[in-house]
Amino acid sequence: MSRATLLIKKMGGTMYDIYAENLSVDPDTGADIVEYTQYTSVLAWIQPTGSESNVKGVVLNDSLSGDSITAEFFMYHEKPLSNHDRVQYKGIWFEIRAIEPWQAQFMKFYKSYLVKVDDEDNGS
């Protein structure tokens, strides 16, 4: 077991199912059909992006036009994931909108920024 895995477990890490976007085209209408299916599970530790003394949320630039969104949680994990993967946390769906390598002492893992998915029926 790696040091990063031990740290995530020590911090209260939990196994989370990760869902990826699958895009297909409706043959009758030509409309895009977007579905999310589970493709892996990952041991992760999720924490708010702010604290009681700070405003909650980290603003991310979501597009080249400068639109911004707010990430409400960080997710620390050892296994690499992809932007736009989804995870359910406390009964709410979140989407990964940014991922960066993260290092604590001699342990390497990833830090993902989670953005709440609004008004969508997603998951399996």
Mind explaining what this structure looks like?
The protein has 124 residues and is mainly beta. The protein has one helix at residues 3-10, and strands at residues 14-25, 32-48, 58-61, 68-71, 73-77, 86-89, 92-104, 107-116. The strands form 2 sheets. The chain has a 6-stranded antiparallel β-barrel. Strand 3 and strand 4 form a beta hairpin. It is globular, with a radius of gyration of 16 Å. It starts with a helix and ends in an 8-residue tail after the last strand. The relative contact order is 0.23. The model has no long low-confidence stretch (mean pLDDT 83).
Radius of gyration over C-alpha positions, nearest whole angstrom: 16 Å
Total helical elements: 1
Query: Could you list the spans in which at least 5 consecutive residues all have pLDDT below 50?
Result: none
Taken from the alpha-carbon principal axes, the silhouette is globular
Gap between N and C termini, in Å?
30 Å
Secondary structural class = mainly beta
Helix content: under 10%
Number of strands: 8
SSE string, helices as H and strands as E: HEEEEEEEE
> Largest sheet, if any?
6 strands, antiparallel, barrel
Percent range for β-strand residues: over 45%
- Which strand order does the major sheet show? 1-2-5-8-7-6
What is the multimeric organization of the chains shown? single chain
Whole-number mean pLDDT: 83
